[in-house]
Amino acid sequence: MNILIAPIVVLLIVALIGVSLSIKVVTQYQRGVLFRLGRVVGVKEPGLALIIPVVDRLVRVSLRIVTMPIQSQGIITRDNVSVDISAVAYFRVVDAVKSVIAIENVNAAINQIAQTTLRKVVGQHTLDEALSETDLINANIQTILDSATLEWGVEVTLVELKDIQLPESMKRAMARQAEAEREKRAKIIAAQGESMAAAALGEASDTMMAHPLALQLRNLQTLAELGVEKNTTVVFPAPMMSAIGELGNFLARETAAAQGIRVPQTTEAALSPPPTPSAAANATNGDPTNGPDLATTAVR
């Protein structure tokens, strides 16, 4: 009896080992490439997969998107500026069979080709283009990588430039350029403000010419604003100064007439305002000989 039990136990153990070796589980994000005697016989979908021990071999391939950083590369741009640029690439396997039989290590291969492509594409652009047209550079790198990796069953979904390191001298030059650009914009804005202010003052002057009292009201408002604070400023409005001058001329003429002093023609002309052309024409009827005697008028 004991002799029969030992072989049965051995057979059970061998059967359990065989079952454990023949049962494989493929997760949802994987595909199983089945090799039978070294040849690909199919792809196992997610779930429970049965294989023949020793004869079959199942290689699981992940279909999830892989994030691969591209280490910083020393690149010389088209305008001979040395920069260090790092990037990041996102790819995923779309054909499990090709990713296993077409290339040995797909991650290492994509990393190497991404570095060389990054240097090639950025080297074809100037520094300004590399800083401002990153979307175009990313699209070009992705297109070149896709053309090479699709043969490996891999699709590059996205490539992004992550960091651009500039030399210190270039940073200082760009800072001076940015400062000059800001100063230019400030001067343009100031000039536009002066132009708008001049236009507004022109419109205000036209309004004051159409309404003479507006200028007087503006003078009174200015005097009121000056009188708000305690100061010793004395302001004489322009109309008052002209009135004082006319009053002085009148007193000088009356004093000369009372004393019987004949005022010279030049003095009288200086003391009295010149007549308007219309008034002179009416007084002489267009004939200078009909005008009054200046000496008689001055004595009287």
Description:
The protein is α+β, with helices and mostly antiparallel strands and 300 residues long. It has four domains: 19-64, no CATH class; 66-166, Band 7 domain (Tetrahydropterin Synthase, Chain A); 171-234; 238-299, no CATH class. Helix content is 55%, strand content 21%. The protein has eleven helices and eight strands. The chain has helices at residues 2-22, 96-101, 106-122, 127-132, 134-149, 168-210, 212-226, 238-258, 265-271, 277-284, 294-299, and strands at residues 23-26, 30-36, 39-44, 47-50, 56-62, 66-76, 82-93, 154-165. The strands form three sheets. The protein has a three-stranded antiparallel beta sheet with strand order 3-2-5. A three-stranded antiparallel beta sheet has the order 6-7-8. Strands 1-4 form a two-stranded antiparallel ribbon. A hairpin with a 2-residue loop joins β2 and β3 (39-44). α3 crosses α5. It is rod-shaped, with a radius of gyration of 51 Å.
- Quickly count the helices: 11
Could you give a short account of the major beta sheet?
3 strands, antiparallel
Strand content: 15-25%
* Mean pLDDT across every amino acid position: 78
Which homologous superfamily in CATH is the superfamily of the largest domain? Band 7 domain
CATH class of the largest domain: Alpha Beta
Shape: rod-shaped
Lateral strand order in the biggest sheet? 3-2-5
| N-to-C CA distance | 172 Å
Determine the CATH topology of the largest domain. Answer: Tetrahydropterin Synthase, Chain A
CATH architecture of the largest domain: 2-Layer Sandwich
